[in-house]
Specification:
The structure holds two protein chains of two kinds. Chain A is mainly α. Chain A has helices at about 10-40, 45-55, 60-80, 90-105, 130-150, 155-175, 210-235, 235-245, 250-255, 260-285, 295-305, 310-340, 350-365, 375-385; strands at about 110-115, 125-130, 200, 205. Among the domains of chain A are: about 20-55; about 65-295, no CATH class. In chain A, about 65% of the residues lie in helices and about 5% in strands. In chain A, strands 1-2 form a two-stranded parallel ribbon. In chain A, strands 3-4 form a two-stranded antiparallel ribbon. Chain B is mostly helical. In chain B, helix 7 (about 215-225) packs across helix 9. The longest helix of chain B is centred in the first third of the chain and has 39 residues, at about 1-40. Classes of the chains: A mainly alpha, B mainly alpha. At the A-B interface, helix 6, helix 11, helix 13 and helix 14 of A face helix 5, helix 10 and helix 12 of B.
Chain lengths: ~400, ~350
Amino acid sequence: MSILKRSKSATKAGAHATSQRKWAIGFLIAAVLIWVFYTYVMVHLPDGIQTVVQNWFPPTSLNEALVWVICALGLNIVVGYAGLLDLGFVAFWAIGGYSAGWFMSAFFTQVNFRVFTTAAKALPGIHISFWGVIFIGGLICAFFGIIIGAPTLRLKSDYLALVTLGFGEIIPQVFTNGSNIGGFNLTNGTQGISPVDNIGVPGKSLGPFDFSWKFFIFVFLTAFMVFISLRLRTGRLGRAWLAIREDELAASMMGVPLMRTKLSAYAVGAFSGGIGGVAFATHVNGVFADRFNFSISIILLAMVVLGGMGNVWGVMVGALLIAWINSTGLPAFGDLVNNTFHTTINFPSYNFLLFGGVLVLMMLFKREGLIPESRLKAILHESDDTSTNVGGSH
Amino acid sequence: MSILAAGYQGRLDRRRYFERTLGTLAALGILYWLGINFAKSPSQFFQASLIGLSNGVLYALIALGYTLVYGIIELINFAHGDLFMLGAVFSANFMSIWFGKNHSGVVGWGFFFACLLAVMTFCGGLNVVIERFAYRRLRRAPKLAPLITAVGVSFILQFIGLRWNGSGQKTWNSMLPKGAIEISNVKIPYTTILSFVITVPLLLLMSWIVTRTRQGKAMRATAQDQDAARLMGINVNRTISFTFALGGALAGAAGLLFQQTRGLTSYNLGYQLGLIAFTSAVMGGIGNLQGAVLGALLIGLIQGLNDGLPIGLGQQWSQTVVFSILILLMAFKPTGLLGKTVTEKV
């Protein structure tokens, strides 16, 4: 309750309300415009333009990008708001994905359990509605976030990064080797779990290829994450996170309960990782253990850093940009260059350079990101002004 | 007041008691596991330990780079593992492609040592360049900034490795003599013996540099207090560069040893090995040189035993075992085995 408590000042609350209405309307208009373009306008366009759009902005990569946005917004709460570096975010994505694999597929043939599902009656396994699995996946992730956070949050920030990184290594390995845990097939090993159930909405059942309708569901989930991020940011908990990010010691002296505040950052971040994982599983129609590697954690971090740590819109822009470059932009650009100049450069292999370069250059020259958050900008540069001793608690 | 204090003391005691009991139980479990394995097949036990230890010396060379850099500027140099990978790729190219040496022999041996010098210079130099352009500007920035930069540098180094070595694994011939000494079913390969023969002097040399030379004294002073060191006339930037060079050189040597003993290179080698080496450094107490070596040998041994023993989790759980140890250590003893508890100054 206190988490969502509004700011006390009346004028401030009014300002928040209008700005929130504004973003919601803008967001909805953008989503509807994109949807209308893909469903109605594109089919009437000349073939040449259709091919260009299919090559450069295919609807499937749009949906995938939204999954990245959801996860990046979650990481933003941990890294951007609370200032805790998490290098193992892929673990939550994986756990979310496997929640979808477990609770909305025919994988567990031993049981037959169904709740509000559109799956065929004859199909064994656990079938829970997509909307239920989203919450289950999110809660499992939040639970793991607390498990990993609780004993380690006493540590200094860089040690914490290492522990999360180790966690991000362990979880995918458990899923990879999970086909035989004491004789029990938990995860189906490297083959993964596929297919997962369709998404049930009133009057429809959205399969893996219903891109345009699923787009709306993903937009809705993204909007939900944006809403949570913005509301928490202005609330009591959000202000406590920012205080911790800026000076942990001072915050604890002011009565901010360090442990609980940090853990809630982890839990909320992990929750959104779970949502993203479930959404991604329905997007690719299955979960596959070998997809969950370290580079996902780093790409998410690059999204947050590029966009602007702590700024929801910045992170969203960064995530859309990098997800697009990663999935279609770079290969499409490579094809264009190779076809024009008759070269055979393998552009997708420049991924490493690109993401590494983004991280290094942003940290060196524009630490606050493309769309900076005003408070963070001030902190990140305060030490540049003075050359006195700042080796303290930062 | 005194009641409150007593309550706090009691909670602390209970916590310590809990941790100690847990530690004892874990130790007993491990001893039991080792015992039944030893009873089952002593020769396999020794073989697995030997393989583990020979990995351990390799980890020690890499772990020292982490611990040196952390000791002096409190930065977890994520890119260090990838530096090691570039060292391995460099050595492979140096021996097999640039000089076309494919056989063991006196000439091959000569080139081996020439390559040792070359790769140490290469990696040391590269590390200095990285420090100069990526980390130096961020020395006074909040901690998150250099850490993220280090992750970025690690990706860039992996990219170089990818372009240089190709996306797959490459196998190479070794200059080192093949064959093994066999003592009652336990095979001791010559390569294992040689990696000890090469590593131990390097470790001694490093320890001599840090504890006995003028430059080493400057390093320790800088680690303690940069500003005070500067006031005493120590060139802090040069000292930090020197530390990076030293750590890089050791990583280069490790790269050559890895390439020659395993005979393979791949661009993503550095990530896994780097993490394991970092775990070793933490296990021994980061910033502590002897600790890093001890931790590395222990981690190597644990990994070797887990992979090689008849009753064990097996190789596919190797990473999980190592990282679980890392997490448990962080949770219960973040200072490591030989590290000292430091109270934070405000």
